[in-house]
Amino acid sequence: MSPESTGQNEHYIRVARRRFRTWRGDRPFWAGLFTILGGAPIAYFPYADLHLGNMTLTMSTTAGAGSLIIGVLLITLGLTMWFHHIVRVFAGIAAILLALISIPVANIGGFLIGFLFALVGGALSISWAPGLPESEQAADEQAAPSSEQPYEERPEAELQGAAAVPQQQGAEFDKAADADGGRHRAG
Fold this sequence. Notes:
Layout: H1 12-25, H2 29-44, E1 49-52, E2 55-58, H3 64-83, H4 88-105, H5 107-111, H6 113-127, H7 134-143, H8 156-159, H9 175-179
Antiparallel strand pairs: 1-2
Helix pairs in contact: 2-3, 2-4, 2-6, 3-4, 4-6
């Protein structure tokens, strides 16, 4: 064993967990999970039978097909958020609309459980934004001003004049055009 060899002694569970964490970070994972969890009770409750001793309580309604369609669409939208995150805004808006439609159609939105999960999942999907790649993130950190002092507290040498406009390096400026306000005379 040498300290230079990395990854050879890692346990497969640790490797799988790291890969899952990377996969989860590249997409609106929690939005998809909440939307799927919202679609499940909306689709399930109209077809569920509750057994209390010898008595069976059936919660099926005349809108059972509508509940099934809404639930399956919400589950599909949750999977879409995971695997096609480029359409996350559309999927989020559709999830919110389906959650709102489930209130009158699907047993008060799966007894409000499915409604709330789908509503939160749709909102998370709309608000999610992908992070910057590591190369762009490093470039942004380097481009940020190095001094932590506000503009007013910086030394005069760092301000570069009254306007504090950064000068282009290596570019020659037309002094004549600046003298007459930027207007060029023909001739």
